[in-house]
Design brief:
Elements (H helix, E strand, L loop, with lengths): L9 E6 L3 E8 L3 E9 L6 H9 L7 E6 L10 E2 L2 H8 L9 H14 L5 E5 L9 H4 L5 H6 L9 H15 L7 E7 L3 E7 L2 E5 L20 H10 L4 H10 L2 H6 L4 H9 L3 H24 L5 E5 H6 L1 H9 L10 H6 L4 E2 L8 E4 L4 H15 L1
Parallel strand pairs: 1-4, 4-6, 7-10, 10-12
Antiparallel strand pairs: 1-2, 2-3, 5-6, 7-8, 8-9, 11-12
Helix pairs in contact: 1-3, 6-15, 10-11, 11-13
Length: 372
């Protein structure tokens, strides 16, 4: 394809479980159009998108965020009918997100049938995780037959943040040991060494790891078995509870960290416990990621909670002083956009980075289209 990467317009489609984010990026990752829509309805989805995109400049390529690429897709790929079908086969591994991504893909493709579409995968960045970190100690038959391994998620965000952190510090990402914390409705931490993911907290599904808004994070698998065997709960019952009725919601009665913090400050014991559990898991995960990275040079917070909760950042980093992490209280309280909140006594640089998966996806699309 002869289109210059300097003049390409990339439409980035980020379809989540409850929303579709559209970004049209020009050269220099300049956003020239943006729209946030509710999740596309089964009927009228194409019309809804078409109405939004009417009047926008036509893109040269479209980049779609796809949550799960299995072991097959470890980098961006141009989507044809066979790739589209294969992506659909991973829906059971990410039932909240994969179908929504494919609905958005189909709708956009009907609007722009002749424009190349590229899939960028949240799991791809974590394909470099070594076997020691990705392998579950379960029967080999399960691992081989069902491709059971720790896949990891939020890879597009973790990769972007590691590169952005390196740029902020004016150091090559290949020379840094970074722990990135993507803290939003879903949450995960990742260990990045020499620009490559070497461990992460999410696993076979996005349910493993940190406490999240409505997801439990890691629980003892024996608990799941006990609930099914002794209390008669079905797999559906347990799955629904762990995905939608757990996390902050279960502990504090709300999935909104802002409300949790306000209630905790007012002395609400349930909210205090929720915040304590959240921070305990987060700090422990950061320390374990530092081990995986063979040390720590940079700690990054991103995502809705990571970017906007000075309380979570303060509480978590206070637990990590033994690693050399120290943040400046004033800089932490006033941090906006991309900011360095490191205390002058800190041996580890601590940054707040705005989540920009759209930039990462657009970059991947340009590189792939340029190579065609």
């Amino acid at each position: 394809m002869a289109t210059s990467t300097l003049t390409m317009l990339i439409l980035v489609v980020n379809a989540g479980s409850t929303s579709v984010k559209l970004r049209l990026l020009a050269e220099g990752d300049r956003v020239i159009r943006t729209a946030d829509l509710a999740a596309l309805s089964a009927e009228g989805g194409v019309e809804q998108l078409a109405d939004t995109l009417a009047g926008w400049p036509a893109p040269d390529a479209v980049g779609h965020r796809i949550v799960h690429g299995g072991t097959e897709f470890v980098g961006p790929v141009v989507v044809d009918s066979s790739v589209r079908r294969r992506i659909g086969e991973f829906a059971d591994l990410a039932p909240l997100h994969q179908p929504k991504s494919l609905e958005a893909f189909d709708a956009v493709t009907r609007i722009y049938p002749a424009i190349p579409a590229v899939a960028s995968f949240d799991t791809a960045f974590h394909a470099t995780i070594p076997a020691a970190a990705s392998t579950y100690a379960i029967p080999r038959e399960w691992r081989d037959r069902y491709a059971v391994r720790r896949y990891g998620f939020h890879g597009l965000s973790h990769e972007y943040c590691s590169k952005r952190a390196a740029a902020m510090l004016q150091r090559p990402v290949e020379k840094l040991r970074i722990v990135t914390c993507h803290l939003g409705g879903g949450a995960s931490a990742a260990a990045i060494a020499a620009g490559r993911s070497v461990d992460t907290t999410m696993g076979f599904t996005p349910l493993e790891g940190l406490v999240m808004a409505t997801r439990s994070g890691t629980v003892d698998p024996g608990l799941v078995l006990w609930l099914q065997e002794h209390e008669g709960l079905s797999a559906h019952d347990v799955s629904t509870a762990l995905e939608h009725e757990s996390g902050l919601l279960a502990l504090a009665g709300t999935a909104d960290m802002r409300v949790v913090e306000a209630r905790a400050a007012a002395g609400d014991s349930a909210a205090e416990l929720a915040l304590d559990v959240y921070v305990h898991r987060l700090a422990a995960a950061i320390a374990s990621m530092a081990v995986a990275a063979d040390g720590l040079d940079v700690l990054v917070f991103t995502g809705g909670v990571g970017e906007h909760s000075s309380t979570v950042r303060a509480l978590a980093t206070a637990r990590l002083a033994f690693l050399g992490v120290r943040i400046d209280d004033g800089l932490n309280r006033t941090a906006v956009s991309d900011a360095d909140i490191t205390d002058v006594r800190g041996a580890i640089r601590t940054l707040v980075v705005t989540a920009r998966e759209d930039i990462q996806i657009a970059s991947e699309v340009r590189q792939l289209i340029r190579a065609i």
